[in-house]
């Protein structure tokens, strides 16, 4: 049985985006394996609107009681959650924009993080319902942030994944990409080697 991988990209720079370059390398190497099946979701090419009250409210209505408009709105979240649940590994290719994640990626998280569906509140606190999965984050950054107070992106991503039950998270960083050609080339080479090692372990 193939390992099913969901690869989510969110760079607005297209072919010029370094996180997309890491995603492309991942896809190329994965395609060499018969036991890996990769689904790609490009959140820029297939952009989601920001979450609004009408869509949020549609989730609170019982399926059989939803209007046609509410059914269409709820389908966005339902389909994304079904897609996530259907895969074994989630790979997020993430650029760093203003010390955070792209807004396109936030709209995806806003729809897969649903109380009562992908997590629930208990007397002991929230409990994730997306279990038995692992995540890989391919992080591309112009500066050097990992391990510093300015890296708000890493804990944010890990916290959101953890809330829905994905605690097995591996980080691959390509940093210093805007700090000179030599540093960029070395960082990308190292990150691609790390990706190769991850794929060998899948």
From TrEMBL:
<keyword id="KW-0285">Flavoprotein</keyword>
<comment type="similarity">
    <text>Belongs to the azoreductase type 1 family.</text>
</comment>
<dbReference type="InterPro" id="IPR023048">
    <property type="entry name" value="NADH:quinone_OxRdtase_FMN_depd"/>
</dbReference>
<dbReference type="GO" id="GO:0016655">
    <property type="term" value="F:oxidoreductase activity, acting on NAD(P)H, quinone or similar compound as acceptor"/>
</dbReference>
<dbReference type="GO" id="GO:0016652">
    <property type="term" value="F:oxidoreductase activity, acting on NAD(P)H as acceptor"/>
</dbReference>
<dbReference type="InterPro" id="IPR003680">
    <property type="entry name" value="Flavodoxin_fold"/>
</dbReference>
<keyword id="KW-0288">FMN</keyword>
<dbReference type="InterPro" id="IPR050104">
    <property type="entry name" value="FMN-dep_NADH:Q_OxRdtase_AzoR1"/>
</dbReference>
<comment type="subunit">
    <text>Homodimer.</text>
</comment>
<keyword id="KW-0520">NAD</keyword>
<dbReference type="Pfam" id="PF02525">
    <property type="entry name" value="Flavodoxin_2"/>
</dbReference>
<dbReference type="GO" id="GO:0010181">
    <property type="term" value="F:FMN binding"/>
</dbReference>
<feature type="domain" description="Flavodoxin-like fold">
    <location>
        <begin position="4"/>
        <end position="196"/>
    </location>
</feature>
<comment type="function">
    <text>Also exhibits azoreductase activity. Catalyzes the reductive cleavage of the azo bond in aromatic azo compounds to the corresponding amines.</text>
</comment>
<feature type="binding site">
    <location>
        <position position="11"/>
    </location>
    <ligand>
        <name>FMN</name>
    </ligand>
</feature>
<protein>
    <recommendedName>
        <fullName>FMN dependent NADH:quinone oxidoreductase</fullName>
        <ecNumber>1.6.5.-</ecNumber>
        <ecNumber>1.7.1.17</ecNumber>
    </recommendedName>
</protein>
<dbReference type="InterPro" id="IPR029039">
    <property type="entry name" value="Flavoprotein-like_sf"/>
</dbReference>
<dbReference type="GO" id="GO:0009055">
    <property type="term" value="F:electron transfer activity"/>
</dbReference>
<comment type="function">
    <text>Quinone reductase that provides resistance to thiol-specific stress caused by electrophilic quinones.</text>
</comment>
<keyword id="KW-0560">Oxidoreductase</keyword>
